[in-house]
Design a protein that fits this description.
The structure is a homodimer.
Chain A lengths: L15 E5 L3 E2 L5 E2 L2 E8 L9 E5 L26 E2 L4 E2 L4 E5 L14 E2 L4 E2 L9 H14 L5 E7 L1 H12 L4 E7 L7 H15 L17 H15 L2 H7 L18 H14 L4 H13 L10 H5 L5 E7 L7 H13 L4 E6 L13 H13 L3
Parallel strand pairs in A: 5-8, 5-11, 6-7, 11-12, 12-13, 13-14
Antiparallel strand pairs in A: 1-4, 2-3, 4-8, 9-10
Helix pairs in contact in A: 1-2, 3-4, 3-7, 4-6
Chain lengths: 378, 378
Amino acid sequence: MTKMIAPQSVGVVVPQRAEFTTPLALRSGGTLNNYHLVYETYGTLNADRSNAVLVCHALSGSHHVAGTYADAPHNVGWWDNLIGPGKPLDTRKFFVIGVNNLGGCYGSSGPNQINPATGKLWGADFPFVTVEDWVESQARLADRLGIERFAAVVGGSLGGMQAMSWALQYPDRVGHVAVIAAAPKLTAQNIAFNEVARQAILSDPEFHGGHYYAHGVVPTRGLKLARMVGHITYLSDDSMAEKFGRSLRHGRNTYSYDVEFEIESYLRYQGDKFAGYFDANTYLLTTKALDYFDPAFEYGGHLPAALARASADFLVISFTTDWRFSPERSREIVYALLHNKRNVSYAEIDCPAGHDSFLLDETRYHKLLSAWFDRIEV
Amino acid sequence: MTKMIAPQSVGVVVPQRAEFTTPLALRSGGTLNNYHLVYETYGTLNADRSNAVLVCHALSGSHHVAGTYADAPHNVGWWDNLIGPGKPLDTRKFFVIGVNNLGGCYGSSGPNQINPATGKLWGADFPFVTVEDWVESQARLADRLGIERFAAVVGGSLGGMQAMSWALQYPDRVGHVAVIAAAPKLTAQNIAFNEVARQAILSDPEFHGGHYYAHGVVPTRGLKLARMVGHITYLSDDSMAEKFGRSLRHGRNTYSYDVEFEIESYLRYQGDKFAGYFDANTYLLTTKALDYFDPAFEYGGHLPAALARASADFLVISFTTDWRFSPERSREIVYALLHNKRNVSYAEIDCPAGHDSFLLDETRYHKLLSAWFDRIEV
């Protein structure tokens, strides 16, 4: 049990970069001959190298999981409320690693990085990557850092799928796995939303087959639409009603296509902001990785058979109002683990915020994570 | 009780057109000095003119509710399974009217019709129209046809909202109202989906501020996306899973942005088809009419107060798997009517098809409608 203190920030952090020159064979059939990963670490690796925790990010996340940057003090890590001294994932006990996924757009090899073979930006030529490829690349980063076995691998949404895949690809290298607000595979409806987002990007005249940088433009219209439709699925119907309802910006109908309802303003703002910094090819690749994820596929769809390889202790968490990956989807994972007599804890957190709940500082959720991390021996 | 016979088609029908020269003041503040409505009728108006039923259409519907066209035998009306001799809305008893809404794109005055004042297509200059405006225009059509009072006004989705509005705007002119798969107003999430669809159209470079016809183009990309996102909300998660699941067109991942999952093929097909015939300005106007509909607004949000004016006998129907307008939304209408001691029947039909259920030939649903229409005295 770590001594109780008031939660603190990990403070100013500095991203690091690791180069890899051993070719990485990808599930898509392609190969990355050399690549680099950008990552951050918080806390200190202990002498036994037994206290490392890998945090995997979701669709629009990055390696910047906690803390801030010296030159950008307001750029706070996306799971900063979870990670730090005195926080549920306590950096006095654990050595925490965040890594930007391959194909991402925050510094790791990806569409907006230079292709070493051509000296030009990868753009649309960056190969398709899968959850399994990400885990493979993360395992190599662990090798580099001298980490034989993670105390835990954790993630929410697509990050939770990576955590699950860790337990399957490297059962001997991970002691605990937390799968939060995730699913064992996407439904047709999940894929449908991704497909709308992709078509918005692919059909943007400024997409130029993915080589938009070469044309000096960015498909902002498509990215904006993709983010808008995504955002609808991140929030619950109720939380949208609570936050925005039918509030009218001008108190009455103005009969125009300018913002009338506050929800329109929110979505446009989120869409514009996202289109200003995210890479369209990364968005496409990442939604594809989501669609492809299906560890039971090679087991004829039988999830218990797929999870038989896992030996880690699991924590599975869902949120009552998450309709993107509903509690039912988490229970599929739990049942499959129980079928294999694996050690699994499951919590369905009553939280109104929908899928995005996994990012929030919800008391019961964080207390649960605190208790779980506390019990992990390092 | 109408004699039982095997259901038959109303056969070949011919659309009719009514011209109006009395200015129509619109809720948006604009005025249509003259306009025309395209409509169809099935069955025969009785001597008392007491057997007329108005069918109101939803977002992408039209006046072509039943039967076929001589020159297009496969163009079957959108509610043909409901209307005809021996069908639930039996044309041996009732005189049924379908009318294309003002602002529509199937022949009534709208963006793709000539503006009499300029001799050019209306395009983006067609004024905003509301559910209330439609009801007003439909009442004038009823006047023209010599119908003082409708035996019933019925509709699903946006059509159900029009039926509800009929009971409020003309309580003395409608005996029965069927509100199917509708809601008393949109939620923030409903508006959000409409807003994504609108932004897809508005941001299409070929939209040209709505004057695309003048530019010899059509914003097909935007319309396609709008329809794709709409379609996701018309189907239930379960019915999508049932119909498409994760079926792969090639039996394996192809790692491309071509169709991989069957659901992608379905959505693209629906989107392309729709973009080939529907008018973008009509889509925009109609989603706005949906957003604006809120009869309780002028009563401080108190629906029972808004519905106090209604005197018709109501039938309210919802479908268990409809997540666009869930049963809860229908129950709001029912409670508000009961609060006013109005005569209302309510049925929640267990049907897996989601919002689109109201268009389907679901046995219990159609039996219920049969019984309801049978009891209406004309």
